[in-house]
Please model this.
Amino acid sequence: MDTIEKYKEYVNTAFVKSVEPIVVTSATGSKITGEDGKVYTDLYAGISVVNAGHRNPEVIAAAKAQMDKLVHCCSYVYHVPAVADLAEKLAEVTPGRLQKSFFGSGGAEANEGAMRMAKQFTKKSEFIALQGSFHGRSLATLSITGNKDRKKGGGPYLTGIAFHPAAYCYRCPYAKEYPACDLYCAKQLEKTIQYCTSGNVAAFIAETIMGEGGIIMPPKEYYKEIKKVLDKYEILLFLDEVQCGFGRSGKLFSIEHYDVEPDIMTMAKGIADGFPLSAFIARPEIADSFRPGDHLSTFGGNPVSCAAALANINYFQREKLPEQAARKGAKVLGELRELQKNQPLIGDVRGAGLMIGIELVTDKAKTPATAEAGKVRAAMREKGFLIGVGGTFGNVLRWQPPLVISSEELSAAVAALAACLKAL
Ligand SMILES: Cc1ncc(COP(=O)(O)O)c(C=O)c1O
Model:
């Protein structure tokens, strides 16, 4: 039996709609090598995870050194050096007064734990989330996910969740245009609180920049407007930076684009360059609402993952990876917008840094080009580029490569995309 047959027989591949028909044997930097020896340029980074590149040598060295000392101990003892050092580092690099971290293994776990903490701190039980959002696949995180495809088959979901329209400017839910809209969608949050909740709202939860929903980046004044409403009703601002954090959008954390301080922030994916780790961080008075014994994760704060994360963040800072992402992203966004001028299938090119969405449409009425997006993904693979596809309608090409990718590789990807679209 070859690998693909074995997967079909023994692995529950419910996790993705269509697995790329390649068998990966190794990866370095921005390149992935298949079993047949074919080398691919990775424009997806394991869904925005290996931001410092596949097998970053400094991250691997730190993990190996930690493995020679301690691999697991759990959190009923203190252990050295990684966990406390990483928590201190996160307090230093995250915005505002965020200070105390709780470590888990994945993004959903971080979001679910943070929801629990928000409830405990506020003594309130409801949440407001955004339409089109994705926060994970546990029951609570699917409950705050605003995407029917992701939710199907998992209900009934938690009650006490209201969904507010997202700042999806290309398809504005209020049929307005930025900036003339004057941030109407943010101001309308007050109406959602008044009409769709019982007023007992613990937190407003948002991906600072939406990933799975199709790379949706709100305008620059958005979170300030949101915060005004939240402050009026004493609701926490809970940001999910699982996908958009760690340099992805050209800042270490995407909320830095908005000059607003979150009350709670969650992270995973890019935190340890591929080692499983997640965290939620909050101001001490919020974090301390968890009393000893209130919350635990067996694998959370695994010393090897924490050592990898620390080396990863040090690498980010020294190599200025967020700045690299901003620079390379601005260039490739410009190239994609040039392509858009002559390519009617491209309805919108958006994002920041190396978090890029290319929304495909079949006509001026913006009919989603879902089938075409799937074909482009396959054609790009044939040309040696792995990309993602997402969005509520499955028509957004997602480019979220390792941030160490070169501008030449990105320009080659634009040329390949131009050829694929032309062939369609
Ligand atoms: C914004 C966001 N939050 C949470 C998650 C869930 O993370 P995990 O798959 O590690 O549980 C994801 C995963 O794609 C995500 O993109």
Observations:
- The chain has a mean pLDDT of 96.
- The first strand starts at residue 24 and ends at 28.
- Residues 47, 106-108, 111, 134-136, 207, 211-212, 240, 242-243, 268 surround pyridoxal-5'-phosphate (CB under 6 Å).
